[in-house]
Structures are given as C-alpha cells and as structure tokens.
Amino acid sequence: MRSFWMGLLIVIAVVVVIAVGSSVWLFWRINQETVTSLVVTNPGGRVGKALLVYQPGLTKFPEQVTTAFVSGLAAAGWQISRTTASREAPVPDAAYDLIIFGGPVYFEAPAKPLARYIARVGDLGAKPVVILLTGAGDVAGAIAATERIVIAAKGRPIRSLGFTTMKPNDEQGKYSGSNTERALQIASEAGQKLSPATQ
User: Residue 47, class by beta-carbon neighbours within 10 Å (0-12 exposed, 13-18 middle, 19+ buried)?
Assistant: First the structure.
C-alpha cells in the first residue's frame, strides 16, 4: 500500500512540474520579441506609404490575417513596409501616411511586445492607425485596450478589426469557406477598401 501512495505522489509531482514548466514556457513565449527585417510590399505603390508592425502568435493565424490585409492594401496601390514588434523595429516617421498594428490577443489584452513597441515610440504624431487583432474568442476588450494605448501615444485609430478562430467572423454569411478563410477574405477586402484619404 505504501508503494501505491509513493507512486501516486511521484505521478502528481511529475504532472505539477510539467504544468508549471508549460506555463512558464507559454508566458515566456507570448512575451518574447521576434526580430525580423523590414520587408517592403509593392514598392512602386503610389496611393500612400504604410508601416505595419505586428506580433506573430503561437499559431499562424495572426500572420495570415496581416498578410491578407497587406495584400489588400497592395492591390489598392499602397506601399507597405512590414516588420515585427521589437526594439529593432523602425519608429514611424513623416514618410508614412498610415500605421498598422497587428497581433494576437492573450488574456484579453494585445500581445505585450506590440504594446511595448507602441509605448516605446511614445508619439505617433497624430497619424491614422489601423488595428488588426486575432484571438480564439471575443477580442472586443483587447481592441478597446489597444485603441487606448494608441491614443495615449498620440495616434488616431481609424479602423479596428478583430478576427477569431472559434467565433464566426462572417455572421452575415457574405463570404465562403472555413471561418479562417472568411477572416482572410474580410481582412483583404478591408485593406483594398482603405481610402488614401485617411486624414
């Protein structure tokens, strides 16, 4: 009988260690900055210049959404400079007509590296800002929090879009395909419809 309890305690200890280790890794991963080089899409675009700063997520969904939005902007004639939220990301300057922030939602808040980037910039110069957030469920609270962060950094949110993997993205049934495919269609169309008159 004693060996049974000893075995049970060992199993419980192993489960606790795995759970704690997984939690620590997850917390570290979602707070980690990812450094990438600046990539320019549609360098000949004449409608305007946009800077997109995003945070990759634990899944491909956040990057898929930002890529779809960029493809829509490019189709509309924009030049888009894209990079990840890190200390090495460029600061928006007068060359950019539009700023786009994108990334996943964790614990009902925007990803920490994205929020830290906006805080580091500090002054967005009253430039128009588009917010693209992704999550498993409701992202409305995180969108409102991101808008407050942008406003505190003297940015002007002009469009905020939230996409989810578990809640329907297309409640009116306008698009076709899976929920993810519908999200990508909506993001691309939003990019195409973004007017250069963002002032």
Answer: middle
